[in-house]
């Protein structure tokens, strides 16, 4: 069976700018898929075109075989799109906002209360949307996207305005959507979010796809060295450099970092010197993959 979402040589331009530049990939039914990239990479443009809000300048998008730009009612019933919270109906309460969406989709009001509970907004149900915090508004917009129980859910930076606790709660909620068998596609700046949530991640910059794979495979493919971080006084830099397996030593005021591709050997040697106290070991992360691909500092 083919992919549920098929993006084929997609190009979207704003004048001379190719915001999406000849991008091809597929997303399987039930997959949790992330578009990861810095500001201006083209994630939102890509997502909006896949959702059917923008027309491709070249190439095509299909969801379940439908062209989303044509807004076929059959397809609209199957996809949920998180809108920007600035697009709420004015002066409605959170509950009224959700109930309005439910009415538009012909969905019963019982689902409104269920969703308010699921996104943790029961306490704010009677607050006007203008009085919601950024994070609360973000959660309400996600609830609106889910009101008709769509099989495919699109989210644009769903956790960008959330504090760490609300963010974790929302991650659990999104993982729950995935566990129910839904396809979820989101954009994010956050490496951590991509690693925690996504089955596969597309790393995007300058409108192009730089890499696409499971986060763990992207990291493994990097073949990056391990960093062993010691207290500055654990061992002298010269002794550290002489240990078997150490490729480089980076001293600074707070730490002494040993860079190695033979971590067990180095750890053994440090153990013999009783220099393990307070040690931390850091392998490669998605951030290292990103920096390796883009060759520049990440602009979160
Ligand atoms: N309506 C528009 N008209 C002209 N240029 C645009 C428009 N929208 C976006 N752009 C430009 O297209 C490029 C891609 O923008 P886009 O919003 O898709 O990136 P993004 O990865 O979602 O960024 P962010 O993480 O900041 O939201 C940027 O250079 C941006 O300035």
Automatic annotation (TrEMBL):
**Principal location listed in the UniProt entry:** membrane
The protein's topology relative to the membrane is:
Peripheral membrane protein
Where is it found, in Gene Ontology cellular component terms? plasma membrane
Give the matching CDD domains: ABC_DR_subfamily_A (cd03230)
Domain ABC transporter: from-to ranges: 5-231
Give the subcellular location. Answer: Cell membrane
SMART domains with a match to the protein in the record: AAA
Q: Pfam families given for it? A: ABC_tran
What the entry lists under InterPro entries is as follows: AAA+_ATPase, ABC_transporter-like_ATP-bd, ABC_transporter-like_CS, ABC_transporter_ATP-binding, P-loop_NTPase
Entry keyword set: Antibiotic resistance, ATP-binding, Cell membrane, Membrane, Nucleotide-binding, Translocase, Transport
- Which PROSITE patterns does the UniProt entry name for this protein? ABC_TRANSPORTER_1 (PS00211), ABC_TRANSPORTER_2 (PS50893)
Which top-rank group of organisms is this from? Bacteria
Q: Name one GO biological process term.
A: response to antibiotic
**Gene Ontology MF: a single term:** ATP binding
Similarity section = Belongs to the ABC transporter superfamily.
Query: This protein is called what?
Result: ABC-2 type transport system ATP-binding protein
């Amino acid at each position: 069976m083919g992919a549920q979402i098929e993006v084929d040589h997609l190009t979207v331009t704003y004048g001379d700018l190719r915001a999406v530049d000849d991008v091809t990939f597929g997303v399987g039914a039930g997959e949790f898929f992330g578009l990861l990239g810095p500001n201006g990479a083209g994630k939102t443009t890509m997502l909006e075109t896949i959702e059917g809000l923008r027309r491709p300048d070249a190439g095509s998008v299909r969801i379940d075989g439908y062209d989303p730009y044509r807004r076929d009612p059959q397809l609209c019933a199957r996809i949920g799109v998180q809108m920007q919270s600035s697009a709420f109906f004015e002066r409605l309460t959170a509950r009224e906002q959700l109930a309005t969406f439910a009415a538009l989709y012909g969905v019963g009001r019982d689902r409104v209360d269920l969703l308010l509970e699921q996104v943790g907004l029961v306490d704010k149900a009677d607050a006007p949307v203008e009085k919601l915090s950024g994070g609360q508004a973000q959660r309400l917009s996600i609830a609106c996207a889910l009101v008709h129980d769509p099989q495919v859910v699109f989210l644009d930076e769903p956790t960008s305005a959330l504090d760490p606790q609300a963010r974790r709660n929302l991650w659990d909620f999104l993982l729950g959507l995935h566990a129910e068998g839904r396809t979820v596609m989101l954009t994010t700046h956050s490496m951590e979010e991509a690693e925690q949530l996504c089955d596969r991640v597309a790393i995007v910059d300058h409108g192009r796809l730089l890499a696409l794979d499971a986060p763990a495979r992207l990291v493994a493919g990097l073949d990056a060295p391990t960093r062993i971080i010691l207290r500055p006084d654990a061992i002298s830099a010269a002794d550290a450099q002489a240990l078997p397996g150490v490729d480089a030593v980076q001293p600074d005021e707070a730490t002494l970092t040993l860079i190695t591709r033979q971590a067990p050997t180095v750890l053994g040697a440090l153990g013999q010197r009783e220099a393990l106290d307070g040690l931390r070991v850091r392998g490669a992360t998605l951030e290292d993959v990103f920096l390796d691909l883009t060759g520049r500092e990440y602009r979160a």
